[in-house]
Structure formats: structure tokens, C-alpha cells
Amino acid sequence: MGAPDRDEDPQITLDGTQHADLEEIERAIMQISWLSQRQFMQLLDEERFNMTLPQFYSLLHLHQMRDPCKMSDLAEATQQSAASLTGIVDRLLEKQLVERTRHVRDRRQVMVVVTPQGSSLIAKIKQARHEQMQAALGHLGAEDIDTLLRLLDQVLLSMLRVLERGDTHRWA
Amino acid sequence: MGAPDRDEDPQITLDGTQHADLEEIERAIMQISWLSQRQFMQLLDEERFNMTLPQFYSLLHLHQMRDPCKMSDLAEATQQSAASLTGIVDRLLEKQLVERTRHVRDRRQVMVVVTPQGSSLIAKIKQARHEQMQAALGHLGAEDIDTLLRLLDQVLLSMLRVLERGDTHRWA
DNA sequence: ATAAATATTCAATGTTGTTAAGTATATCAT
DNA sequence: ATGATATACTTAACAACATTGAATATTTAT
Q1: Residue B43 · residue B128 · CB < 8 Å
Q2: Could you give the 3-state DSSP secondary structure of residue B11?
Q3: Which positions on strand D lie below 7 Å from a protein C-beta?
Q4: B13 or A131: which leads in pLDDT
Q5: Helices and strands in chain B, H and E counts
Q6: What are the pLDDT digits (tens) for B109-156?
Q7: Contact present, B86 and B54 (Cβ < 8 Å)
Q8: Alpha carbon distance, N-terminus to C-terminus of chain B
Q9: From the CA of A93, how many Å to the C1' of C14?
Q10: Which residue blocks in B20-141 are alpha helix, DSSP H?
Q11: Does the structure show a pLDDT above 60 at A64?
Q12: Over chain B, what is the mean pLDDT?
């Protein structure tokens, strides 16, 4: 990731003021996403955690749900295919971070729950990640934090909406 | 990814105002990173592009550099190991998106350059990605875009600084 | 010339991604 | 009830990448 593309002109709006291009934001988001995932991947790879990104995000969702969660729901929430998820849950199971049961009524459904060990690991990882991100976020002022959070949540909600629509669209 | 963790209290600051927690931002960045990379992965996977994320980010860096780039520099810039990169560049080479040469003076070094085909593909992918992200960003006002860009670039620069320090620290 | 340092590739292994096919259970129509 | 269809998930086969450590090639130092 080299220097940002700065060779494009800013937009000229009707009122004559100059505003940044949307593509600048896209570049920033892409770059931050790539770098932060890389950085996080290395953290998860340490012996004390020994996890992969897909495993973490799957476990994180189960932790947030607390109650048993269908495989298909977990797959949709984490944007992973059911086939991939089977192997991922297999490995979480080996480490005793989750438990797999069958739904009582509909025995086709496989339900997964996080174990206390799983929740405890998530807490440790969140703490380690917090320390890691402190370096990138620590210098932000309280005002900036509020603003950034508001904008990021706006972006995130739009993304989630798109994904939901995208899923229904895919099966249409 | 389920509903955001909202069960943590906001920070109470000295002046009595309530401000969002840094951890909220961390959550948002993690979630956006994961989702946007997933979404982008699916886009790159379409037949017209037929690329993977590591391939794209490697090619993107070469595109931004324009001039030939050492394997080790590319590895550092994209945060990939030299060993991984060899295979990735192999596949870019097969698709004729890059060319590999030896450095004239120091023939240990392998130099990689993007081809015109490679640059053209990057442009097409950027366009497709732009349309994809329009859905998540299109509703932002001009003010918000400026603000968000400023904050994201701040975060990005901090991350880059950390990575540089982290690299020198790792080999020390 | 020999040794040491550097840059990259190769080989072996594990996780995740894909698609397609397979198995088990549930539901619906007759 | 029985047979067809749909649903939920797993399995299988293969490609892409991640890791590590060994091997190779080239340069630099003695």
C-alpha cells in the first residue's frame, strides 16, 4: 500500500466550494480494511490465541448472540458459505470454544453455542485488540471520536442493508 | 455479525458530557473491515475479474508505484510474507498482469512491474467497486464526506506509522 | 577464493474458499 | 400413510494462500 492516490481532482459543487471525492473515502476504507485485517490476523495467530479471522468472527457472533444459533444464520451473519462454516465450527469444537447440538423440534438444524471458555477467549482477544488499536486511535479527541463513530455506524448500517438485499436478490 | 454491542456505558468525562467509547469505534472498524473485505472478495471472484484479495492489493500497489518494485518492498507494503508473495506474483504473471525482471546491478533482487493490461484491469475493478460502495456511501452529505475522509486519513496514517515501527521492532 | 549476508524461491502442511453431490429430516399432496 | 419435494447441513475434491524452514543464487566482506 503506497501513498494514497491524490492525482484526482476534488469535486466542484454548485456553491463553488470544493469537496472531497467519494472515491477518496473508498480508497481509505479499502486500505484501512486491508491493513487492519492483516494486523488483526497476526495478533490472532499468536500461540495464546491460535485463531484465524473466520474462526474469530464466527465465535464473536456466537458470543454476541449468547443463545444457540443455527448454522445457516451464522453463515449469513458472517458472510460465509455453509460449506466453509462446517469446517470452521469443527475447529472451534476441537478447541472446546463452542458446542454443537441438534434443534429439538427440527432435527435438520444444527445449533451452535459458545462455551464459557469461548467467551473468555473473546474477552482476552478484545482486550489485546484494544491495545493494538490504541496506537491508531489513541490520539483522537473526544469530539472526533463521537463524529467518527456516528459516521462509521451510518456506513455500517448501509452496508448491512445492502447485504440483506443482496442475499434475497441472490436467491431470486 | 449481529447487532452491535450496545451494552457498554458511554464514558463520563470531566466536563460532565457523555462521549462514545473508543471500543465502539474499534467494533465499527472491525465490522466494516470484515464485511467490506467479504463483499469485495465476492466482486473480485466474478469471472470478469477472477482475482483474489491478496492478488488485487499486490497489483494495486504496483499500479500506484508504476515503476518496478522489489519483491521485499512489495511484501512490506502489502503486509505479506515474501514466501506468500512469490506464489501470488506467479499467478499475476500467468494472467500477464505483471512482468518479472532482475535488477540490473544487484541481480539478487527480483523486480515486478504492472503491465498495461494490469493497469486496465485495476481501473475496471475500481469502477466496479465504486458502484458497489455507492450503496453504502451514497447517502452521505458533502460535509460528512469531508469529515469522514479527514478522520479516516488520520486513522490510516497512524496505522501506517505503527506498521513501520512494528516492522523494525520485529527484526530487532 | 572463501565466508557471510541478502534476496528470493521451493517444499511441506493447514485453513479456507469454491462447487457439486450426498444424507437426513421435514413438509406437502394425494 | 406414501411418495415427491424442499430444507439444512455435511462431505468431497480442488485451488488459493498462509505458515515455516530449507535450498538456491548473487553480492559483499575478509
Answers
A1: yes
A2: strand
A3: 7-13, 16-22, 25-28
A4: A131
A5: 6, 5
A6: 999 999 999 999 999 999 999 999 998 898 899 999 999 999 999 999
A7: no
A8: 38
A9: 17
A10: 22-45, 53-65, 71-78, 82-94, 116-137
A11: yes
A12: 87
Residue B51 in 3-state DSSP? coil
The pLDDT of A37-41, averaged and rounded, is: 94
| Helix, strand or coil, per DSSP, at residue B32 | helix
The contacts found for B88-94 with CB under 8 angstroms, 24 or more apart, are B88/B54, B88/B55, B88/B58, B89/B58, B91/B55, B92/B55, B92/B58, B92/B59, B92/B118
ipTM of the complex: 0.87
- Which chain A residues have a beta carbon less than 8 Å from that of B60? 1
Residues 77-136 of A with CB under 7 A from strand D: 82-83, 85-87, 89-90, 100, 106, 108-111
Q: Would the pLDDT of B22 be above 60?
A: yes
**DSSP characters over chain A:** --S----SPPEE-TTS-EE--HHHHHHHHHHHHHHHHHHHHHHHHSTTT---HHHHHHHHHHHHH-S-EEHHHHHHHHT--HHHHHHHHHHHHHTTSEEEEE-SS-TT-EEEEE-HHHHHHHHHHHHHHHHHHHHHHTT--HHHHHHHHHHHHHHHHHHHHHHHHHHHHHT-
Residues 99-158/B with CB < 7 A to strand C: 100, 106, 108-111
Put simply, the answer to whether B156 touches A30 (Cβ < 8 Å) is no
One-letter amino acid for residue B56 of the chain? F
Domain ranges across chain A: 20-139, 140-172
- Cβ neighbors of A37 (< 8 A, separation 6 or more) are A53, B33, B34, B37
Fold topology of A20-139: Arc Repressor Mutant, subunit A (1.10.10)
Q: What is the mean pLDDT of residues B103-112?
A: 92
Per-residue confidence (pLDDT) for residue B163, from 0 to 100: 76
**What CATH number is given for B51-128 in this structure?**
1.10.10.10
Closest CA to B23 of A155, A39, A44, A138: A138
